[in-house]
Amino acid sequence: MPIYEYELCDGTCAICGGKFTLRRPLSAPALTKCPLCKKPVRRVFSSFNTPQLTKPLSLSDAKKAGFTVLKRLGKGEYERQ
Ligand SMILES: [Zn+2]
User: Fold this and answer.
1) What separation in Å is there between the alpha carbon of 45 and the centre of ligand 1?
2) Is residue 15 situated within a structural domain?
3) pLDDT tens across 47-73, in order?
4) Is 63 helix (H, G, I), strand (E, B) or coil?
5) Which of 11, 18, 41, 80 could anchor a disulfide with 6, C-beta 3.0 to 4.6 Å?
6) How many angstroms separate the alpha carbon of residue 38 from the centre of ligand 1?
7) What distance in angstroms lies between residue 16's CA and the mean position of ligand 1's atoms?
8) Residue 39 banded pLDDT, cuts 50, 70, 90
9) Considering its fold, how many domains does the chain have in total?
10) What spacing in Å lies between the alpha carbon of 19 and ligand 1's midpoint?
11) What sign for the dihedral angle of Cα 43, 48, 51, 54?
């Protein structure tokens, strides 16, 4: 389950500290209120938790970076010469 980071839209809260992280399933609806104090919150897109969001990578980007998509060196079974 991914960990999401939230902060209060306004003010602060003694319960959650105004900023908190929450482990939620991908299928869960977007969190709009602090589950503790019920104040409105917004999602924080931090590079700490989701570095891939700061620099979106496509398959072509991966190839340009030197990744071999079809040959998996870890298993060795695809590396045949
Ligand atoms: Zn709170």
Assistant:
1) 18
2) yes
3) 555 555 555 567 777 777 776 666 556
4) helix
5) 41
6) 6
7) 4
8) very high
9) 1
10) 8
11) positive
Count of beta carbons in the 10 Å neighbourhood of residue 5: 16
Nearest alpha carbon to residue 6 among 65, 14, 24: 24
In whole angstroms, give the CA distance from residue 21 to residue 5: 4
The alpha carbon of 64 and the centre of ligand 1 are apart by a number of angstroms equal to 44
**DSSP-based three-state secondary structure for 61:** helix
User: Contact, 22 vs 31, CB < 8 A?
Assistant: yes
- Per the structure, the complete domain to which residue 38 belongs is given by 3-55
Looking at residue 20, what DSSP letter applies? E
Task: Give 10 Cα–ligand 1 centroid separation in angstroms.
Answer: 11
Q: How far is the CA of 6 from the centre of ligand 1 (A)?
A: 10
